[in-house]
């Protein structure tokens, strides 16, 4: 088992912020820290460049699909022209039921955040 990896200070990861740490996008969704693998299941955008929507979901910076950061599942498929493709939204939501984003716990100790427990 590897040692927990330092993310930064809790003060630096304010609600709505997302950063990249290794192969994870680490963020603060309405006060809840999360870490999910950072490659979007659609076309591979870096989710560390995404943002948090009003529901606490991680939104992809390219085509604005949205992920539940607790389960790693897509809850809204790619938007824009992709949203006009029949069945695509359903397909990606089902795909990420089988292949959700990987997740890792984020722990806070003495004001510092770490990936892993
Ligand atoms: S690459 Fe993420 S929605 Fe297209």
Quaternary status: single chain
The CATH architecture can be named as 3-layer Sandwich
Please give the alpha-carbon distance between the first and last residues.
10 Å
- Are there runs of 5+ residues with pLDDT below 50, and where? none
Q: Might you state the CATH topology name? A: Rieske Iron-sulfur Protein
SSE pattern, N- to C-terminal? EEEEEEEEHEE
Alpha-beta content class: mainly beta
Count structural domains.
Answer: 1
Helix content: under 10%
Shape: elongated
Give the overall average pLDDT: 96
CA radius of gyration is 14 Å
Named once each, the bound ligands are: FE2/S2 (inorganic) cluster
Instruction: Give the name of the CATH superfamily.
Output: Rieske [2Fe-2S] iron-sulphur domain
Salient structural properties:
single chain, 117 residues, Rieske Iron-sulfur Protein, elongated, binds FE2/S2 (inorganic) cluster, 2 iron, 2 sulfur cluster binding, iron, oxidoreductase activity, acting on paired donors, with incorporation or reduction of molecular oxygen
């Amino acid at each position: 088992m590897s040692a927990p990896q330092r993310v930064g200070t809790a003060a630096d990861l304010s609600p709505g912020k997302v950063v990249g740490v290794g192969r994870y996008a680490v963020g603060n969704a309405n006060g809840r820290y999360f870490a999910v693998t950072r490659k979007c299941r659609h076309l591979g955008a870096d989710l560390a460049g995404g943002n948090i929507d009003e529901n606490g979901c991680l939104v992809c910076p390219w085509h604005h699909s949205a992920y539940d950061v607790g389960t790693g599942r897509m809850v809204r498929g790619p938007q824009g022209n992709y949203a006009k493709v029949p069945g695509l939204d359903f397909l990606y939501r089902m795909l990420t039921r089988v292949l959700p984003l990987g997740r890792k716990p984020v722990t806070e100790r003495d004001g510092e955040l770490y990936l892993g427990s």
